[in-house]
Amino acid sequence: MKLNNNIYNRFQSKIGQIAVLIDPEKTNTRTEISNLVKKSEFAKIDYFFVGGSTVTRKDFRKTIAILKTLTSIPLVIFPGDHQQISDEADALLYLSLLSGRNPEYLIGQHVKSAQEVLQLNIEVIPTAYILIDGGNQSTVAYVSQTRPIPRDNTTIALNTAIAGSLQGNKIVYFDAGSGAKKEVDSTLIANVKNALNSVVIVGGGVRSLEQIDQLSQAGTNVIVIGNKIEEELDFLLDIHSYKSLK
Ligand SMILES: CC(C)=CCC/C(C)=C/CC/C(C)=C/CC/C(C)=C/COP(=O)(O)OP(=O)(O)O
Ligand SMILES: O=P(O)(O)OC[C@@H](O)CO
Ligand SMILES: [Mg+2]
C-alpha cells in the first residue's frame, strides 16, 4: 500500500470532475478499450474507474493491463469484490458498503483480501459507499443482498455519510446504482458538503450534461458515468464541449 495521496489530493482539488466507469465484463478487448480511450482523452475526462459487480478476475486484469498501455489518465479501481485488485492501477477505492447491513460487504471482503491489499503498491483510499434508491433494483443491491437508502430520506443518508466519515473514511461515494432511473439528488450532496469536509463521488443514472452540471454545482468532486457512455460513446464529445465552456 502506497502512502502518498496523489489521487486523493486530485479528487479533493476540484469539483465537477468526470470519471468514466469501465466494466471489464462488457469492455475488455483492445479495440473497444482503444476507442473509448481516444474519445475520453479528447473529452479530457479526469479518471477511469474500473470495476463491476460480476466481473471475473481474468477480465478485470486484462482490461487494466490494456488500459495501462493506452493511456496516462489515472486508473482507479472501483471493486465489486475482493478479487478486483491490481498493482497496475493508480488507486483502489477501499469500499465499505455502509447503507447495507450485510457484514460480508462491511468487513468480510476486507478480511479476505487484507494481506493482498497490504502488499499492493498503489494508493488505497478508504471510502464510505452508500447506495441510494434510484427507482429500480440495482445490480449492486442485488449482489450485496442489501437495500438502498430511500431516496427521500435525506437524514439517514446524511447521517450515514457522517458516521462513515467519523469512522475514518476519506471519501463518501453515493451511488444510485448502475442504470438508475433517477440520479442522486443534488440537495443531498449540498447538505453533505455543508456538514463534512469530505470528497464526494456520485454515480448511477447520470445521462445528461444538465445532471452533470447540477451535481457539480452542489459540490460533487467526481461524477461517475457508466451506462450512458457504454451506449453512446459520442456523449464524450458533448462532455468535451461542456468542459470547453467552463
Ligand atoms: C475490500 C475490497 C478489495 C473490496 C470491497 C468490495 C465491496 C465492499 C464492494 C461493495 C459492493 C459492490 C458489489 C460494489 C460494486 C460496485 C461497482 C463496481 C458497480 C459497477 O456497476 P455494476 O453494478 O457492475 O453495473 P452493471 O449493472 O452495469 O453491470
Ligand atoms: O452506469 P451508470 O448508471 O452511469 O452508473 C455508474 C456507477 O456509479 C454505478 O455503480
Ligand atoms: Mg457490471
TrEMBL record:
Q: Name the enzyme's class.
A: transferase
Q: Which GO terms describe its molecular function?
A: imidazoleglycerol-phosphate synthase activity; magnesium ion binding; phosphoglycerol geranylgeranyltransferase activity
Positions of Mg(2+) binding: D23, S53
A Gene Ontology biological process in which this protein takes part is:
glycerophospholipid biosynthetic process
State a GO cellular component annotated for this protein.
cytoplasm
Q: What is the role of the protein in this entry?
A: Prenyltransferase that catalyzes the transfer of the geranylgeranyl moiety of geranylgeranyl diphosphate (GGPP) to the C3 hydroxyl of sn-glycerol-1-phosphate (G1P).
Name of the molecule in the record: Geranylgeranylglyceryl phosphate synthase
